[in-house]
Amino acid sequence: MLSYVLRRLLWMVPTMIGITVLLFCVMQLAPGDPAALKTQGEAGGMGSGSSATADVESAYEKFRKRYKLDEPLGVQYVNWVEHLVTLDFGTEFFRPNVQVADELWRRLQVTVPLSIVSVLLSYLIALPLGMLSAVKRGSLIDKITTFGLFVLYSLPTFWAGLMLIILFGQSSLGWLPVVGLHDQDADQFGTWQYAWDTILHGILPVTVLTYAGLAYLSRQMRTGMLEVVRQDYIRTARAKGLSEKVVVFKHAMRNSLIPVVTIFAQILPILIGGSVIVEKVFNVQGMGLYAYEALLKRDYPVIMATVTVTSFMTLLGFLISDILYAVVDPRIKYD
Amino acid sequence: MTDEARGKVYSKDYWDIVLGQVRRRPSAMIALGLLVLLYAVAIYAPLLANDRPFLFEGTDATAYKKARRELLPVTAGLLATAKGGEAAFDATLAAEEARGAALSGKERDEWLRQREQRVRTFDDELATERQALALRLDAMRKQLAPSDRGPLDELSEAADEVVALSLSDDLAGVEARAASVEALAQRARSECDVAKEGGTEGVVLVPFREFPALQSITGAELYFMALWALVLSFPLWNTLVNRVFLGGRRDRIRRARRPKLAAMALLPLLAVPLASEQAGGDGLLSSGYKAGLASGAMAATDAVFPPVAFGMAEQNLTEIFRPPTWAPSSRISEDGYYETGARSARVDEMTGMAIRGEVVDVRHAEPERNAAWRHPLGTDSLGRDILSRMIWGARVSLSVGLVSTLILVLIGTVLGSLAGFFGGWVDLVISRVIEVFQCFPVFFLILIVVAFVGQGILYIMLAIGLFRWTGVARLVRGEFIRLREQDFVVASEALGASSMRTIFRHVLPNALGPVLVSATFSVASGILTESALSFLGFGVKLPVPSWGSLLIESSSVEHWWIQVFPGLFIFLTVVLYNLFGEGVRDALDPRLKEA
Fold it and tell me: Which residue intervals of B103-201 are DSSP H helices?
């Protein structure tokens, strides 16, 4: 088992290198010189004139020196990876006193709990729903849930978010807060009040984050369950007179869970991509919004850091899912 | 074997079965039908929503006067080029190149951009100038009685002569005639002045007949319109061809499948030359038909407008952010005030005076002020009709999905079949690459590329195609691994067929079914991705909107119609594609149907 995990870890190395190379290439694609962008932005504040131009020239050179932009690409790449390994993402482009790693960590504390809650929720809802649908195959319940999930699956996240805001926001029903994760004066709240406030604010974002994964998961669960129900050992179980409850929950469910449990590795990148949109719609100060704002400002270090972190998190998800698979399914051989 | 015998031994092939199965699924067929209609709306947009009339009959004094005013300068320009001859033109060109070579930085970029548009040869330059003159002459001629056209015809002939002389490098001849051409232009100008009311001098304008909406259609648009006419009428002519020409025999029908497809793709090409030369532009018309008709510059005896009489970019600043006109909140009273809501007549708190609302300007041919069908989906921040913009926007949204899918299917199929067919280190490398791509939140990556490289529709299609191919590649790889040990593949190799032949003739056709299904879902996801990009502000740039970019015209909850309707159509389109995809998947693999 341990050797299996180690081998999987080793296999991750080329993938990680691939990820960094691809990222580096994408960043090189960006037109415009970060140094020029930066120094010109500063010059704009200083006014014009020949001395200003000279200042810009020297600032430009200094900047290129500092970020080693005049080195060959290969050297730049190695430099960048060296910093990555030590989790040093540098400072923000336009706020040089803010460490990207610190800010990112702060933002992750918002995004990760949201994602985890929505993953858990989607599993909690999707598994019973998929099972019900499979057990009662062809019934009205099955048809309704299948159709409902199909519709959910096709629903654009940003639009769903906007519609929820229109529906529940101040202007119509006024039931739920739609901006941010806390009230403005949340600092003065007591613990319970604060928690309640957070939950109220979280309902809509979590709903939007949850429904797409839920639809996907539930379909997978139904498929897996139908597949299992056809197996011989289910027929045997029925033949020897076991109650339907035992057949469904003990024999069928356990085996159909295996592929579904491991799917969360696939849901993770979808969730993270989705967090950009959901956090933008509900103005949640998480990693997605951080990355989005960085994109608007062309804040290279921040963009690099967020993409790298998310892709490594996804890779980690794949690893966990593989190990989980091996743990829950004894038929998987470790070699 | 005779045809008779062949008909008897006919067995269904792969696509017979698939098509038969798809046909038996009502939900897939309904989805397909609705999709075809949706594309029809996008393709026929100029005929459905336009501020140009289908048919215009009347006079246009403004256009006439403008053409007449420009007659002299345009003639002078033509003469100058003709007199200079090829040598002078080449000299200016060379001088310009030299100037450009000395430039650098932004100026150089600007210069390069201009060079793209500049005419490169003397012949073209002369033809362009002649064309400009012809445009003015035609604009005048069509509004003149035949008896008044004399001076214009003479000018036209003389200009042709000069051009011919100049092209044959007879500069002396050009010089000799230049003065007379100029005199002709002067004469045409003075003799063709429009008669003042009650005056006797000058000419009287005669009504002309035009089809402005049709004339604005470009060749490419015509091609797709003709193609879609064939698609829409497919059930009709297909049945006819099968019954009458193919005698209803299945083997012949099957063999006719490819020729039919080819005919559908090629026949519409015949429509391309029908496009008007001035397509895309408005010729001399500067203010639009509605404005012309409203101001009295144009007098129409007859003008027929499309069902939605609003242009994609037509603004009406007196109707900003008007709710859908069937909603009670959009009602406007006689004197132009909104009757309810934030913009109804109110009293200024400071001065105590009533704030006058702006009276809604109802233009020629538009539904009246409070008609429910005036703006059934409301208007945006510039008073543009959302319905019209959505009809045009369908073009962007639908084509992004299709083209990006085409790209990703191409990449995925090539890489997937290489990996699956050859195995070994090829497979290893490609599989690693797929794994790398799968670790990214793909949407995020597309977002970065579009934000950095460029926000055009082309970049969006490319970015989606370049980052979403892994699914198809894995699918094709799996199919190839499954198929390559099968007898018919081994047989093909044993017969000495090359790898390429084996791949393309034997393996690939059998692996295409799942790809088709996956492609259908990819179109849906491409449309979703584009709209999400647009929503984040990295979408297609104006003037043609996409549904996603329509949706962000206002972020205020107050303007709900702006967010509801475009999103609804994105949603519906995605549902239709997914429905159709599920239908095809079930048809391909009945075993999966239960899933």
Answer: 105-117, 122-141, 150-167, 171-191
